[in-house]
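Hey team,

Filing this mostly as a record. A colleague (T.K.) asked me to run one chain through the structure pipeline before their review meeting, and I want the input and output archived in the tracker in case anyone asks later how it was produced. No errors, nothing strange. Just documentation.

Input sequence:
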Amino acid sequence: TATTAETPVTSTTVSTDKPVTDTTATTAETPVTSTTETINTTQAPGEGDVTTTTTVTNIGGDNETRTTTSGDVTPVETTTRVYAIADVQSGYYFNHDPRTFEAGHVKSLKLVYVDEDGNENAVDADMSKITLVEAAKGATTPMDAYSADQLDHTYLVNVLYDGVQLVDKDGKPVQVKAYIGVKGDANLDNRVDAGDATSVLVYYTALSTGMTTDEVLLGAINSTIVENPELDELAAFLADVDKDVYSEGNWNTKKDGRKVMNDDATTILVFYTNMSTDETNRYVGWNKSLSSREENMKNSLTAEEVAKVLAQGGSN
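Output structure:
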């Protein structure tokens, strides 16, 4: 950024108890012990002469006005470069989330000011001035950023500070990654069907045998999950269906901090069934499915039962 130094319009009042003697003042013969001096300096930015008008009020005496004019003033160009040092984290979102991306993607931020001599001064940034905008569409919400055609579920989100794109020391834009998918879509094919219920049930069964979350891929039938561990985290986020967009901390909770269980599989299957019959609104469909969750837990399907439903095909 370049700034131009300009002569401001100023009004300054100075008080002093020094004796003042001025041969042009009407009270010059009588030194005074206090004066009030008002100085007004005017100049159009970058134009013409600087005119200074000085009015001296002598305590107990008369007023005196002096006017001086200097030559043209050449604006001074200075350049300061700013780059960011940011500690960022990824996050996970439902594709129906209408809220802005979480500012918590940026865990910490310093702004480094570099003057024309190369001197650096780092300051902590005001975190309230951070905004996040998805790079491809300029979207500020997961709902607007999401595209069903984007099968890698990965969205780059620019980090802005006070509306200005931040860059790192190398001049590259500071960005975070947002992973966006359809609620209940455990195998990440951008639809919810019985196959997702099967994926969750197989995952839960594996954990029940003593395997760890690191050892079991939730949506293993999707090869992209194997290639990108972050997508396995997204699958766990989407499969943990008793959580919603307003559940505190849900957007960045990792797989090992979740309880993806057989009742999640049953709830997904109930949702799929509702959407395959008489329901067309996904919000209503999820509300219906989740409202019967306790009953679902009592009647959670086995892997064999879910497999039978899967064989029937179809999706929402």
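Quick notes for T.K.: Residues 1-47, 49-69 have pLDDT under 50 and may be disordered. The longest helix spans residues 194-208.
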